[in-house]
């Protein structure tokens, strides 16, 4: 999997930065109970001017950021149901650490609601995010869960390739 540091600037990098900022915003919503629109406004007006772990958030794709935050917040229950269907039975969504659950929800949202983004791109992006946040076994969990979900939601994308996981 490619890391964040080697990516060229451009639309792809702006989307990657939006994903990072969206997960941070979703974490803020989850931990504080703040209203989704309030947090979206805060990120668009203030937080995108910050740098987080060497990544400047300023270049984030603002439309995608808004879509991810609002969509994941609105569809959290349905996304958790999708994730539950592909998680091990003895490891329910509720048992996942908050940040890990939010990374998976955001990935599930893109797989289910953003057919314009290829599933392998979604998986790679969220594996990279998990690696940036955790750097351990969580990365493999994100890869496995999103791969199973992608194959369930978009089997045609994998049928053409005819080989192993993303």
Order of strands in the sheet with most strands = 1-2
**In which range does the helix fraction lie?**
55-70%
Number of strands: 2
Q: Terminal Cα separation, in Å?
A: 9 Å
Oligomer: single chain
Overall mean confidence score, pLDDT: 88
Beta-strand residue percentage: under 5%
Low-confidence stretches: 1-8
Biggest sheet, open or closed, and with what strands and sense?
2 strands, antiparallel
Number of helices: 8
- What's the alpha carbon Rg, rounded to whole Å? 15 Å
**H/E series:** HHEEHHHHHH
Class computed from helices, strands and strand pairing:
mainly alpha
Shape label: globular
Can you tell me about this structure?
With 166 residues, the chain is mainly α. Helices cover 66% and strands 2% of the residues. The protein is built from 8 helices and 2 strands. The protein has helices at residues 11-32, 36-45, 62-74, 76-86, 98-113, 119-133, 137-153, 155-159; strands at residues 51-52, 55-56. The protein has a two-stranded antiparallel ribbon with strand order 1-2. Strand 1 and strand 2 form a beta hairpin.
Gist of the model:
This protein is mostly helical and 166 residues long. Helix content is 66%, strand content 2%. It has helices at 11-32, 36-45, 62-74, 76-86, 98-113, 119-133, 137-153, 155-159, and strands at residues 51-52, 55-56.
Question: What's the arrangement of secondary structure elements?
Answer:
Elements: H1 11-32, H2 36-45, E1 51-52, E2 55-56, H3 62-74, H4 76-86, H5 98-113, H6 119-133, H7 137-153, H8 155-159
Name a few traits of the molecule.
single chain; 166 residues; mainly alpha; disordered N terminus
